[in-house]
């Protein structure tokens, strides 16, 4: 359902020039973030969490 709503919103935004520019900007930023996350390295190791794990 969430993915469906995202698609509807993206289609609506793509119909306007400003919306299309915002979608392109968001796409570029997400692409850049994913590229940095996939690169292994000592600095990219996640810090230990102090929270206890929750059991579902």
From TrEMBL:
Protein's UniProt name: DUF6203 family protein
Pfam families xref list: DUF6203 (PF19706)
Compositionally biased residues, Basic residues: 47-56
InterPro entries, per database record: DUF6203 (IPR045777)
Organism listed in the record: Nonomuraea bangladeshensis
Keyword Ribonucleoprotein appears in the UniProt entry: no
Entry keywords, A to Z: Membrane, Transmembrane, Transmembrane helix
Keyword Transmembrane: yes
Domain of life assignment: Bacteria
């Amino acid at each position: 359902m969430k993915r469906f709503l995202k698609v509807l919103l993206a289609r609506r935004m793509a119909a306007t020039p400003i919306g299309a520019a915002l979608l392109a900007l968001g796409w570029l930023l997400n692409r850049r973030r994913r590229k940095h996350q996939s690169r292994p390295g000592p600095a990219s190791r996640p810090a230990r969490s102090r929270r206890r794990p929750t059991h579902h």
